[in-house]
Amino acid sequence: MFRSLYSKLAAVLTGLFCLVGLAIIVVTMFSTDMYQKEVNQRLNSKLADHIVAERLLMQDNRVNQEALEDIFHMLMVINPSIEIYLLDTAGTILAFSAAPERVKRKHVDLGPVRNLLEGRATIPVSGDDPRSLGGKKVFTAARIPEQGELQGYLYVILGGETYDSVVQKLKASYILQLSSWMIFASLLFALVAGLVLFASLTGRLKRLAKAMDAFRSGAGQAQIKFLPQKSGHRADEIDRLGSTFTQMAARIEDQMEQLQRADATRRELIANVSHDLRTPLATLQGYIETLLLKEDSLGPEERRSYLQTAIKHCERLSKLVSELLELAKLESSDIQVEREPFNLSELTHDVVQKFQLKAGEKQISLTTKIEKDLPFVDADIGLIERVLENLIENAIQNTPPDGAICLMLTPQNEDISIQVSDTGCGIAAEELAHIFNRFYQLDKSRKSEQGHCGLGLAITKKILELHDRPINVASALGSGTTFSFQLPVHSSV
How many CB atoms lie within 10 A of CB 198? Predict the structure, then answer.
């Protein structure tokens, strides 16, 4: 029954309001009673003194019955709620105005009487009720002197039986009942308002808990109904909690997707690496076994051809391993970009000169178009050199004989634009988004012929990402491909 937060809060609030209501009733009744007693005692505080001053109640230690009867009769007519008792110096009741069968006590404690007369007590002061063995009533009292000697006390009960019956009637009166109902209605309204408020607060928490449970059970972020969130100064703790959970869920989901993509990439990488390593190894093994089996029958030229082929595949295998290690270092952030100003024109000339021989073997024209007096760029010279080498090598591999490759440097605002263009077969539009993936081959049937590992463009993109620079590609089938990127101009400031 009390498993939910709302039920617990509702039970606690209901119990609290019941206790508060009971406390209010008790305190109100007690305060009202004490107030009535205090008012009654203060208003009649001199009544006993007036009676003693007006009539001689005792003389020679004897009760003046005639004077007492006159006073009893007069006071009963004026105020029937008053009861008069005549006490001796020890507190013994000598005479009284009540019916004899109603008086239960023969003695009254004089302690409260003396405290009242001497002003040592705080009003209201209660004394013994002669009509009740254990009851207490407010009173007034006065000393009865004779020739300077104390003869006794006049003890006046201000709230007798008649007073009690009237009080009971007042407690059952319309005004008191109305006040009680008003208190009850106020408490009930406050209770209902509190329950509604708790329902509003716990309802938001309940929706958030359901969202958490749904997320824990594997539901996607898009399937989870989150709390309506407020922003700015209007947001409370629940809003901030809901917002934090939303952000956390989105981050966890993104991380899960990244892990899934990374796992898929890892599996693909392992498969591709296994294939690319197995192919040259198998070829290398085949040529070496052939050399061993036909050692006596092979001529020098055949033996030389076999060895050159084996070396070619060894070089291919070595290149694949080197590129794999390089890409792994780049992706693991083991390589730190060390930016420095350098002359991009000179670096471009050096890289182009390095590939002139290879391009000439394929009868490909490798040229540059560099504007004069280009400013220095700010980048990692070693990594940018690797980018240029990969782009030129990729262009040579995909450009047919009698084709052309051009490397162009042009200023563009605060950057230097680098373009590597070729007149190759081009790339289909649907394949442009995949050419920077590891081991991606446009024409997988030419892979063994060209010795292309499929990692050069992936390494190029990663290097430029470390420089916070994108690489762009534009291509059309039959007209060639252009790769371009930009490097920032070095600022002397």
Answer: 18
